[in-house]
Amino acid sequence: TFNTTNVTKLCPDAQCLFAFYGGETAYHKYIIALQFFNVFMFFWLANFVIALGQVTLAGAFASYYWAFKKPDDMPAFPLFSAFGRALRYHTGSLAFGSLILAIIQVIRVILEYLDHRLKAADNKLAKFFLSCLKCCFWCLEKFIKFLNRNAYIMIAVYGTNFCTSARNAFSLLMRNIIRVAVLDKVTDFLFFLGKLLIVGSVG
């Protein structure tokens, strides 16, 4: 009805432009929130799968390490039995640990989104605070990943819940902080050598 109205007489620069099909629905209003929800669920599920793998490996190693008579006291299939224990008894703990990590990762995504939106603005103070927040949440994510991995080991070995395992893992790490730092660097170097060996052999 644009051409039949007197809008062009009242406002000569007025134009009739195409916006989108279907009108302004609830989907169009909340599309950004839905996209953030999708990102959050992706992070949660990805972290849950990683946690399940870590608990499974820790359970398999523990069943070998604490077997008094090897291989008589070991299960026939250590990986499958550890995977079954993790799914049957520790699913809630894994989901809770993954949830904490997913929340931190979503906050980091929101900070990156805000940084992208504020690039046009020339506000030095806002950029400084945003950079500080990004750095703090990056450090927090690394710390939570490290703590979660050790908490999952405690879960696989002792069968306690996530909070108890995280507390025990943190106190154990604090009691042996120098040994943990040395072992962490040594294992990182060994992993690096293993990656080089695999890539070189495949090449």
TrEMBL record:
Family of this protein: Belongs to the CTL (choline transporter-like) family.
Cellular compartments annotated: Cell membrane; Mitochondrion outer membrane
Annotated source species: Pampusana beccarii
Catalysed reaction equations from the record: ethanolamine(out) + n H(+)(in) = ethanolamine(in) + n H(+)(out); choline(out) + n H(+)(in) = choline(in) + n H(+)(out)
Key word Mitochondrion present: yes
Name under which the protein is recorded: Choline transporter-like protein
Record keywords, A-Z: Antiport, Cell membrane, Glycoprotein, Membrane, Mitochondrion, Mitochondrion outer membrane, Phosphoprotein, Transmembrane, Transmembrane helix, Transport
Segments crossing the lipid bilayer: 39-67, 87-111
